[in-house]
Amino acid sequence: MKPTEDHDARVRLDKWLWAARFFKHRTQATEAVDGGKIQLNGIRVKPARDVKIGDRVDIQIAETHFCVEVKGIADKRGSATIAQGLYQETADSVAAREAAREQRKLAATPGADLHGRPTKRDRRQIGRMMGGD
Fold first, then answer.
1. What pLDDT was estimated at residue 133?
2. What is the mean pLDDT of residues 100-128?
3. Which of 42, 43, 79, 89 has the most CB atoms around it within 10 Å of its CB?
4. DSSP 48
């Protein structure tokens, strides 16, 4: 389906998030909105709130944060190229995501300093610290 660029057109927030391909399933979009991971124009809203062209949507998916401006309205899921035409990510959002990606790249992998199972000596030291003999 072709996205609508009529400025009076409106669609439910959860439907728009699904159509814009931020979530694979509409139920995931609904749960994200209910869980406070999505904000519309800086306000926490319900999934049935209408989205219109020009609105700002803040989306938190895992560790990734998107801040997008609504450029088109669609209530049905289309191809990825159509979905990308529904929004435009802000320059600040792109810069913040790039900085976060670099930060994760430079951070040490959790557990990198651990090398397998504890040795017999390590187990004895652990036992002494835990109050054993």
1. 63
2. 84
3. 89
4. T
* Helix (H) or strand (E) run with residue 58 in it: strand 56-61
Rg (C-alpha) for the chain, rounded Å, is 22
3-state secondary structure of 106: helix
Give the pLDDT score at 2.
Answer: 64
Distance CA 86, CA 73 (A): 6
| pTM across the whole model | 0.76
Answer left, alpha or beta for residue 54, where phi above 0 means left and psi between -120 and 50 means alpha.
Answer: left
Q: Which residue has the higher pLDDT, 96 or 111?
A: 96
49: phi > 0 → left, psi -120 to 50 → alpha, else beta; which? beta
**Token pair for 67:** 């801040």
In terms of pLDDT, which residue wins out, 76 or 115? 76
The type of residue at 131 is: G
d(CA 12, CA 109): 40
Spatial contact of 34 and 28, defined as CB atoms under 8 Å apart: no
What is the distance, to the nearest Å, from the Cα of residue 48 to the centroid of all Cα atoms in its chain?
19
Residue 4: is it exposed, middle or buried by C-beta count within 10 angstroms (0-12/13-18/19+)?
middle
